[in-house]
Amino acid sequence: MKTQREHRAYAAVQAARATTKIPIQTLIDDLVTDFFPLHGDRTGGDDPALIGGIGQLGDLPITIVGIQKGATTQENIARHFGSALPEGYRKALRLMKEAAKFRRPVLALINTPGAFPDKHSEDFGQGEAIARCLLEGMQLPTPILSVIVGEGGSGGALALACGDEVWMFQHSTYAILSPEGYASIMWKDATRAPEAAAKLGLTPKELLAEHIVDRVVTEVANADQAQDLAKAIHARLTGLLALSPEDLLARRHARYRHF
Amino acid sequence: MLQPKFTPPTAAELKKRRQAIPDRLAQRCPVCGKTFFRFQAGRCMTCPGCGYALRITARKRVKLLFDTFAETHADITVPDRFTDPAYRAKIAQAEKKTKLKESVLTGWATIADQRFAAGIMDPFFIMGSLGSATGEKITRLFEDATKAHAPVVLFTASGGARMQEGIVSLMQMAKVSQAVAAHSAAGLLYITVLCDPTTGGVTASFAQQGDIILAEPHALVGFAGRRVIEQTIHAQLPADFQRAETVLEHGFIDAIVPRDQQKTVLARLLRWHQPAPAKAVTSA
Fold first, then answer.
1. What is the CA radius of gyration of chain A?
2. Which of A125, A131, A158 is the closest to B209 by Cβ?
3. Most Cβ neighbours (<10 Å): which of A69, B209, B247, B283?
4. pTM score, two decimals?
């Protein structure tokens, strides 16, 4: 028997995974104008799961990095079901560093079940790629705002969610592991996912209470609805840009130090 | 009547004999499969067949490697807000097994008169998983070292994030990473020694952030678990997958150092990176 809490938690997981969820590329096009995609990690790869580029948000040019799932099966295979490769994390870090050089703010848009678990990723240093995002990305002296749009899974999401603020869509989740993975590790039974979902505390409301995230934003499904979000992001990035790099980093440091 | 040549022992006698045999006298190497007597593993606890460095407790490693050791932050333990009885029972069991209150032991150590901040993760404390108190101890290890202008040597052995503590465990990766960055920005040396196993969130943060990354022979080093990967790619993985030697070949480890050579190697590396007095750091 599912308790009401388990039912609610698992419904949240399903909503975050819904195929009707706005694709990251569409969201980017709705949020900014003149988006110009930038490719490659400069070490020999370009991960299709990781979209990066520069766009105009009001009066601000901003760098965007996003992890994108596919809309069709074919696209999903190409994008590893929204799980980035080491090349993806290296590309994201490269673009974030470039943004910092020009003191351009960074917007990270996240919809990923986690970093891609395959042999190639292990051999090419998935762990090292994420570790470097944390070590170097967290020290970049430019505003970094992350928005979890759908699923925020594990270290693969954290790599792009370790900046100044983390926001969540109303129907999104953020957790240490997928409920199926958690149930499989803790109880060797993946079918107990709803129970795991309740235990993980992965809903925006719970995470806001724990100060893991800073704001929950209304779901965006179309270009019209994206305008409010664009305004909110613009206001927050402008506010963060007003801080000196020292104050920005001190504030960021304090945010993570208390965990 | 003739005396029987052999009198079978009674059940009671057999039991007594069995009890006289010490437990865990022999053991099987999980890497090469060789069965050996424990004394054959020697003081360094190394498989006589393949050289695999067997898992050891943090306290044992301290005794094996350091000339002196003064523990710090010994009282930091799992916060009271985690009340799940099954988790609490696991913690109690781990404390008994490891004589630690969290999965990492931290302190000030010396090897050949070289002083450094040392962290040793214990694979017998809930698989060395990264709990919030583990993250706090490692963060303080780096903060203390930065303040004292000292190098850090960290032995990692961990199954990754601690599932029982949820998202707060994930946040430790970020918390420790910024302490590592501050230590690095001060021009100080950070050496990691990857021990069996170093996986998940620990690999994806401080284990792979060292200036110099060493590993023990045949240590398992990776991010995702073997089972998860095999399910994703629907294929069996080779036996040497995620072994330190394979990871070295791919360029993510500087050197593999057998346990009996670690003291010499660490002493040499530390000597080459002796921190300059704080004032002399800025170049003219």
1. 17
2. A131
3. B247
4. 0.93
